[in-house]
Amino acid sequence: MDKPHKPKDSTSCGVLVCKIAELLLTEGNMDFAVDNVGVNILRAEMASRLVDDWYATLKPN
Fold first, then answer.
1. How far is the C-alpha of 60 from the C-alpha of 19, rounded, in Å?
2. Source organism's superkingdom (predicted)?
3. Is residue 3 a part of any domain in this protein?
4. Which domain holds residue 40?
5. Is residue 60 part of a domain?
6. For 16-48, what is each residue's pLDDT tens digit?
């Protein structure tokens, strides 16, 4: 059995915890890369989603 990924920096854990929480709440598939590239992709996806959600609040009803 492979050992779980242990981030070598002090910032990846927050991104991974947020992603795991999201997937648990949405019953999503926990199949994503946890290397540096994968974590950067998760960061970009989260940032894009936050900006999109914020922008949606600015639109008139």
1. 30
2. Eukaryota
3. no
4. 12-17+33-61
5. yes
6. 999 999 999 999 998 888 888 999 999 999 999
Q: How many residues does the chain have?
A: 61
Decide if 19 contacts 42 (C-beta within 8 A). yes
Give 38-44's long-range contacts (Cβ < 8 A, gap of 24+).
Answer: 39/7, 39/12, 39/15, 42/15, 42/16, 43/15
Let me know if residue 38 belongs to a domain: yes
| Dihedral sign of CA atoms 43, 47, 50, 56 in order | negative
Q: Number of structural domains, the chain?
A: 1
CB 9 within 8 A of CB 16: no
Residue 6 has pLDDT above 80, yes or no: no
